[in-house]
Amino acid sequence: SGPDTVSPTGQPTGADQATVAQGGAYLTTAQGLRLPDTDHSLKAGPRGPVLLQDHHLREKITHFDHERIPERVVHARGAAAHGVFVGYGNAANVTKAAFLDKDVETPVFVRFSTVLGSRGSADTVRDTRGFATKFYTTEGVFDLVGNNIPVFFIQDAIKFPDIIHAGKPHPDREIPQAQSAHDTFWDFVSLHTEATHHTIWNMSDRAIPRSFRTMEGFGIHTFRLVAADGGTTLVKFHWKPKAGVHSLVWEEAQLISGMDPDFHRRDLADAIEAGAFPQWELGIQTFPDTADQTFEGIDLLDPTKIVPEELAPVRPIGLLTLNANPSNYFAETEQVAFHPGHLVPGIDVTDDPLLAGRLFSYLDTQISRLGGPNFAQIPINRPHAPVNDMLRDGLHQDAVHSGVAPYRPNSLDGGCPFTAGADLGGYVEVPVPLPAATKVREAPASFADHTSQPRLFWLSLTPIEREHVTAAYTFELGKCHEPAIKERNLRVLADIDPVLCARVAEGLGLPAPAPSEPLPSVQPSPALSQIRGTWPVD
Ligand code: HEM
């Protein structure tokens, strides 16, 4: 189990130790040795050479040399806050998750982020935003690791290194920082057209939010909820900001990037400090858990597709309030470790192949980012439920475990206190029947349509929003050097909408290509509330 704020030897650890070190009557070394001077190296005479025997100099510099840890491989730049989640109690018919029961208050930690930029990049770049929530429930940690855009670039996690290598700065000059306006990004998304839907959202105002406080959040994948009676329901999670959805315009975003690169993190921290606590409602779209896992012809395992809210309304099931800023950026915001596999009873995963890869990736990356396998003991990552695992030793092990038998079954440490089984109330995976299948490396036919939902999105926009999308494609593609990449992207746009394609082509000074096949018949939606954000805000 993880340590508390007092170590097994009785010494204060973590935040308490920091307070002692910076607020105590005198300074000490890390070993507790009292120091009268930390301003001068030990020298042979005031002007003489510095002596190697200066243990305090060596300790101070050595520790400083190792202050940095690797930034996240994606979502490196972020800001976070503490808060509370209160369940409305109206989801019991679909899930037994205790934190969703009526009026149950669960502490949370939420980290917002950009995806592509490095830790020191600007906040208001055109990019997807991460929206990751850690619920410290009484049944263990539940992480909802989502984004502010409801779809993703790829349908299979094996393509994640490809899309990120294409989106990150060019490997030769490491530019541009945190912008998608470059050849490799547009090269990839025009060759791998399942990225088209996410890309058009990125070219919309959604990718330049006014504030973290005015962003929606989406779990994206379909999850499987389990009720107390064992009944299962497929769901998509949504966060709806009480402050409404608001964006910057591109000129504002660019100016702010220069004038205040910390605009979003400052806005979040200032609002919380002023007592204007940001709030979101958690909502679910629910779908019957059928054998084919589709709804109204939409494959629920395809993370490049939404289910329009006209077809499946979002039901609000709880309220999130962010009410406290972190006291130490490194300890909390930098060291927090989210993982889509942190689940609680009542919430299970589906076979979305993107989600499957994520279930491997987060724990794997955190072992190197946080220096070994014991990062669940870092205070921000500690569950608020009792921990009784048999994980032992390893780098950065802070716990002093007692007993001799961290294995089951045993007859030494009081024997085995449990037998595996659902009757003890633990987490049991839903016994989903698997179809007879053949081992293949291929996507289902239902993943093949990459065009109709981008077209649905375009048709749902207001004229001014369409102007913004057109301008964004023109600006971003205008930064590409390779003419063939611009032309290939125009062909992708031709398959979305001829007007969009013609306007961007005109802006780029290129001829507009014809669509490769008849455009999908999609009805313009007068109120596609997935995009419009209609929501029962009180
Ligand atoms: C980090 C969301 C797909 C690998 C993150 C973060 C978010 C996020 C919000 C930042 C968490 C934080 O604030 O600390 C998503 C969403 C996805 C997606 C919504 C698709 C629906 C993937 C895939 C992979 C992946 C497919 C790999 C196969 C990672 C890694 C990190 C990360 C390695 C860094 C984690 C860390 O260092 O703690 N992702 N991601 N993500 N994601 Fe994803």
Short characterization:
The protein has 538 residues and is of the alpha+beta class. Helices cover 26% and strands 15% of the residues.
Task: Please provide a written account of the structure.
The protein has 14 helices and 14 strands. The strands form three sheets. Strands 3, 4, 5, 6, 7, 8, 9, 10, 13 and 14 form a ten-stranded antiparallel beta sheet that branches. Strands 1-2 form a two-stranded antiparallel sheet. Strands 11-12 form a two-stranded antiparallel ribbon. The model is unreliable at about 1-15 and about 525-538 (pLDDT under 50). By secondary structure, the chain is of the alpha+beta class. About 25% of the residues lie in helices and about 15% in strands. It is globular. Helix 3 packs antiparallel against helix 4. One of its GO terms (cellular component) is cytosol. This is Catalase. Its EC number is 1.11.1.6. One of its GO terms (molecular function) is heme binding. It comes from Embleya scabrispora.
What is the H/E order?
Answer: HEEHEEEEHHHEEEHHEEEEHEHHHHHH
Distinct compounds present = protoporphyrin IX containing FE
- Low-confidence parts, pLDDT < 50 over ≥5 residues? 1-16, 525-538
Shape: globular
Distinct helical segment count: 14
Strand content: 15-25%
Largest sheet, in brief, is: 10 strands, antiparallel
- State the separation between the terminal residues, measured CA to CA: 43 Å
Q: Keyphrases for this structure?
A:
two-stranded antiparallel sheet, 10-stranded antiparallel β-sheet, single chain, alpha+beta, 14 strands, binds protoporphyrin IX containing FE
